[in-house]
Write a structure and sequence with these properties.
The protein is mostly helical and about 150 residues long. It is built from 4 helices and 4 strands. The protein is globular and about 65 Å long. The termini are far apart.
Length: about 150
């Protein structure tokens, strides 16, 4: 057996003209406090979409959904979609609480036309900089769509 020696070297780099010896989330533009504030504001919204099959709590990086079929051949389906140019209109109008409704509807419809029951909706928001108020509005729209479709978020 051979011993392996690992030398741990601190990460370093340059931000602008400043040499730094360690990167942090803050250095990368991530505001952990704003992220925590956003999560605290959307938790009750998301929880309002739950149904009995949802397992666990909000805040993890994945979700669990309990499925039980009694000796019945079964399959699951999934879909993902986007809102396309409606997002541009939402941005131009600075109205962000309705685009999520459409996002859920398009994904749910893609499942329904296959003859399947939509069981849950997975979300993902990508942003360069977190705007808590705007993103809460987006989640409010997604939650509205989830309630209409009877799918947990």
């Amino acid at each position: 057996m051979r011993a392996i020696t690992i030398k741990i070297v601190p990460s370093y780099g340059r931000i602008g003209n400043t040499m730094i010896d360690k990167f942090t989330y803050k250095d990368a533009g991530v505001d952990i406090d704003q992220g925590n504030l956003f999560v605290s504001k959307i938790k009750p919204l998301i929880k309002s979409t739950f149904r009995k099959e949802v397992m666990g709590a909000i805040g993890g990086f994945s979700g669990l959904f309990h499925l039980m079929w009694e000796n019945t051949p079964s399959s699951t389906g999934s879909s993902t979609d986007g809102v396309g140019t409606k997002l541009l209109i939402s941005q131009m109008m600075d109205k962000h609480d309705t685009v999520g409704i459409d996002l859920v509807a398009m994904s749910v419809n893609d499942v329904v036309v296959q003859g399947a029951e939509p069981l849950f909706f997975l979300d993902y928001i990508a942003t360069g900089k977190l705007n808590v108020d705007r993103n809460v509005k987006i989640i409010e729209g997604i939650v509205h769509g989830c309630r209409e479709a009877a799918v947990p978020l």
